[in-house]
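note to self: dont lose this again. the chain is below, predicted strucutre after it. 273 aa total, dont forget to put it in the shared folder this time
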Amino acid sequence: MLIAQITDMHVRPYAKPCYGRVETNAHLRQAVRALGELRPAPDLVLATGDLVDRGSIEEYEILRDLLSPLTMPVYLIPGNHDDRANLRAVFADAYLRQDDRFLHYVVDRHPVRLIGLDTLVPGSPDGELCADRLRWLSHRLAERPDQPTVLFMHHPPFASGLGHMDRFACVGSEPLAALVRAYPRIERVLCGHQHRSVQMRWAGTLASIAPSTAHQMTFDTAPDAPLAFVMEPPGFHLHLWREDTGVVTHQLYVGPHAGPYPIRPAAGTGGET
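---
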């Protein structure tokens, strides 16, 4: 089973670059094209929050159009830039209506069980897994404790060491960790928010953050680092699950790249591998 993860797309109204500089829509279009060209194709795509930049209906309509070339299922979860009501209004998918209050849900139609967690706190860059959300997750995990499971959410439940991003914490991470430790078949916790590729051993499993399909946050481990971004290459993660190995994660970059070139030199050119 091949799971693609895209995140922090920050879709904007057309002709209005993000932060006045980043053409996020064009970047997402390139990422969707790259996903469509993968062979074998991913079985599904997880989009882990900050789907759009301001949470407007217009932005979600553009997001829907930009994602429309994808032929595999796409599962969305909100980030701090998103708006629950507007996301539901534009994307009529039934999985977004499993709960009246939060946009969390379970997908049981694949070999790996998928549980999307809603960490959105309206009006705040911080995330939260409140008692109600954690209680919901506890019930869902208890339903199928022996099924390989992937949790996906926007805010990472761990500190990455990036000072300017760790300031925006996810409240409820400690009780989440206790819950995750109780279920060893949780294969991964997949996150976004920090616009960088980060991995950590956490709560008895692996937690990871995927890079943005557009701009990346500056790598700066100073506690007082200023909030800033850089135009490092956009990318996404591919999570390959097999029964015998579990989940193996690969990072792919979006954009034109030369190659592939054969490793073995052509006949008569000389040289060694």
